Amino acid sequence: GVGFYQVNQKNGQRHSTATAYLKPCCDRLNLTICTSTQVTSLLWEGNRIVGVEYIQDGGLTNRIKVAREVILCGGAINSPQLLMLSGIGPAEHLKALGIPVIVDLPGVGQNLQDHLLAGVIYECTQPLSLDKANNIGNFLKYLLFKQGPLTSNIAEAGGFVKTRPDLATPDLQFLFAPLYFQNHGFNRREGFYFSLGATLLHPQSRGYISLRSPQPLVQPVIEPNYLASEADCECLLTGVEMSRQLIQASAFNQFRGKEIFPGSGVEKKEDIVDYIRDTVETLYHPVGTCKMGNDSMAVVNSRLQVHGVQGLRVVDASIMPTIVSGNTNAATIMIAEKAADLIVATCQ
Fold first, then answer.
1. Is there a single domain that holds both residue 236 and residue 167?
2. Does residue 192 sit in the same domain as residue 241?
3. Where does residue 115 fall: left (phi above 0), alpha (psi -120 to 50 degrees), or beta otherwise?
4. CATH at 142
5. Distance (Å, rounded) from C-alpha 140 to C-alpha 147?
6. Can you state the angle between helices 230-247 and 269-279, rounded to 10 degrees?
7. With CB atoms 3.0 to 4.6 Å apart as the test, which of 86, 170, 174, 309 could cross-link to 160 if both were Cys?
8. What pairing do the DSSP bridges indicate for beta strands 61-65 and 70-72?
9. Residue 331 buriedness (CB in 10 A; 0-12 / 13-18 / 19+)
10. Helix (H, G, I), strand (E, B) or coil at 283
């Protein structure tokens, strides 16, 4: 289907989970929010997690004990990192870094998946895009009334399609943006443009997260292995071809100018694949590195409890065994909603 996307907005502003869930609870006596804080390890008693160690404001190390359980919500990068720093993960990897192995879970940090986008960009023959939306008039509209182009989420419309008729579900998601969008928006170009991006919904490539050091403030290794599977390249190739076809629709006649990317000279399959490999970018949807399941590579069970560990759950996008067929925000919120029900049920 094709249409306008639902967005997390309220009164013209991004309505994040912090705004929707956390801010209304800030005054609760049983809630303490620590900012500028980095958890450095989980605390053990036998095979049970009883607290966390953390650094606040880059200063002293502190510890806090829990009465029931720790809920780890670090995301697909930081959740496996903290588990491994705390002795939960692939035994050989932890031993190589001198970290004592408490629970050997080879799936921690593995199974990294992400959504990739490859796009086409065209000149817009009319001054209607968002390329010059950053002006005083629009700033005032936004500040005073929460209206105007600065309320846009950029990718306002799109659709889901199948690249082959035999597929059970769509494998591409299109995102239309009324501006020049390349390199995450950092590349700029004078003029007016529009972009259409094809997103790979079901990547076959798998990456991993590993530790670079046993020191918790050292960033982990992030190896996404993007486009390691030829099937991923083929899907995005079809996506670029379909994007070009869509832009040739008569509805674009009064707006369509010159093709900027890939460019009119990029027509051969191998040249389009080279273009994809050079320009493809993440949609910031990493998942899967603490996957739910019962197989040898699973990290959490159906109640999101870490296998072989008491008093510890993981509640974030890392528990997805496979990436969802669309943006991960809503799915991650629902994981948290389900986890809340599970936690409440345990406490009753």
1. yes
2. yes
3. beta
4. 3.30.560.10
5. 9
6. 100
7. 170
8. unpaired
9. middle
10. coil
Provide the number of structural domains found in the chain.
2
What tokens were used for 276? 């994809």
pTM comes to 0.93
Residues 199, 318, single domain; the answer is no
Q: Which of 227, 262, 282 is the last residue of a domain?
A: 282
Residue 285 bears catalytic tag: yes
Token reading at 340: 């809340």
Q: Do 275 and 52 touch, CB atoms closer than 8 A?
A: no
Instruction: For the chain, 348 residues long, give each residue's pLDDT as a single digit of tens.
Output: 899 999 999 988 899 999 999 999 999 999 999 999 999 999 999 999 999 999 998 788 999 999 999 999 999 999 999 999 999 999 999 999 999 999 999 999 999 999 999 999 999 999 988 888 989 999 999 999 999 999 998 898 999 999 999 999 999 999 999 999 988 888 888 999 999 999 999 999 999 999 999 999 999 999 999 999 999 999 999 999 999 999 999 999 999 999 999 998 999 999 999 999 999 999 999 999 999 999 999 999 999 999 999 999 999 999 999 999 999 999 999 999 999 999 999 887
> What is the DSSP secondary-structure string of 305-323?
BBTT-BSEEE-SGGG-SS-
CA-based end-to-end distance of the chain: 43
Angle of CA points 301, 306, 311, to nearest 5°: 120
Exactly one of 15, 93, 184, 285 is catalytic; which is it?
285
CA distances from 281 to 41, 66, 234, 258, 316 (A): 32, 40, 16, 23, 22
Give dist(CA 140, CA 152) in Å, integer. 15
